[in-house]
Amino acid sequence: MKPWIMFTKHLEGWDLKQIIAALKSTGVEGADLCVRPGYPVAPENARTALPEAARRFADEGLCIPLITTPGDFTDPGIDYALPLFEACAEAGVKLVKLGYWYMEADGYWATVDRCRKQLEGFAALAERTGVKPVIHNHSGSTMGLNSAAVMHLVKGFNPALVGVFADVGHLSIVGEPYPMAFDIVKEYLSAVAFKDLVRQKFIRDGQPEWRIDVWPLGMGFGNFPQVMKLLKDMGYEGPISFHCEYSNLPPESVVDQCRIDVRFIQAIVDKLE
User: Which of 129, 188, 204, 228 could lock 85 by a disulfide, CB 3.0 to 4.6 Å apart?
Assistant: First the structure.
C-alpha cells in the first residue's frame, strides 16, 4: 500500500521548491501532482516541465506516480493529450487521472457508449507510452461516480491500459459498501484516494439543500480501518493519494492537516501489522 502521496491541488500558487519542502514535511513519499493551468506543471508546458519536476523530486527522494489533469480532459484527441502522455513516460509517471464525463441529453447508455469510445483512444495512448489513464470515482453526476457505474465504462478493457481511481470519501456518499465497492473494481484498481466527506442537509429560504463537506480523516463517513484491512487483504500495492481538499484553509494549513491525516492512517497500519 505504497507509495503514500499528497494531492497538490490546494498548494496552488506554490512553486516546485515549496511543494517539495511541504511534501517532505508531511511524511508522504511523493505527489499526486496537479497538472492544470496555474500550477508549476500545466498541460501546455508538461513536455519539458514534468520531466524536470520528476528529476527535482527524485533528487529529494520523492516520486510522482500519478498526475491529475484538468476536469475537462476527457478527449484523447485534444492537442495536448499525446505530448502529456509522452511527458509522463519520460518522467516515469505511470498513471494519469482523467477528467469527468457527465450524462448528455440523449441519456445514460448513449453517454456510456461515447465514454467507452473515448477510452479506446486513451487505451491506445497507454499502449503507445506505457502510461495508464485512470477514472476517478466522484460523487454527484459523473459517469464513474461509484464502482458499479465506473465498471460500465472500463469493463472489457485491458486492465493494463485502463484503470480505476477509487475514492474512499466519494464512495462513502454514493458508493457501495466498501467490501463490495473494492471487489467490483479489483481487477482495474490502480490508485486509491483518501478523503473523508460528510453529507448534510440544510434549510435555505425554507427549502431543503444538501451540501457535501470535506472533514479531516476519521471525522466523516469513511471507515478507514475497514478500508486499510481490505487493501491489505487484497494485496493492493498501488499509490494512496491523500487528497487534503481543505479548500477553506491556506496552503500552509493544508500541509499541517495532511501531516495529521498521515499520522491517522499510520496508526491504523500499525494496528494491522
Answer: 129
Q: Tell me if 20 sits within 8 A of 56, measured CB to CB.
A: yes
Our measurement of the distance from residue 178's CA atom to the centroid of its chain's CA atoms, rounded to an integer in Å, reads 17
Give the cell for residue 76: 484523447
The partner residues of 202 in beta bridges, in order of sequence, read 209
Beta carbons within 10 angstroms of residue 82's beta carbon? 16
The number of residues making up the chain comes to 273
User: Residues 132, 126: contact at Cβ < 8 Å?
Assistant: yes
Cell of 243: 487528497
Please state the pTM of the whole predicted model: 0.95
In 3D space, the residue among 148, 182, 153 whose CA is nearest the CA of residue 168 turns out to be: 182
Domains observed in the chain: 4-272 (3.20.20.150)
181 CB-near residues (< 8 Å, 6+ apart): 146, 147, 166, 171, 175
Dist CA 44 CA 79 (whole Å): 9
Q: What is the pLDDT along the chain (273 residues), one digit of tens a residue?
A: 689 999 999 999 999 999 999 999 999 999 999 999 999 999 999 999 999 999 999 999 999 999 999 999 999 999 999 999 999 999 999 999 999 999 999 999 999 999 999 999 999 999 999 999 999 999 999 999 999 999 999 999 999 999 999 999 999 999 999 999 999 999 999 999 999 999 999 898 889 999 999 999 999 999 999 999 999 999 999 999 999 999 989 999 999 999 999 999 999 999 998
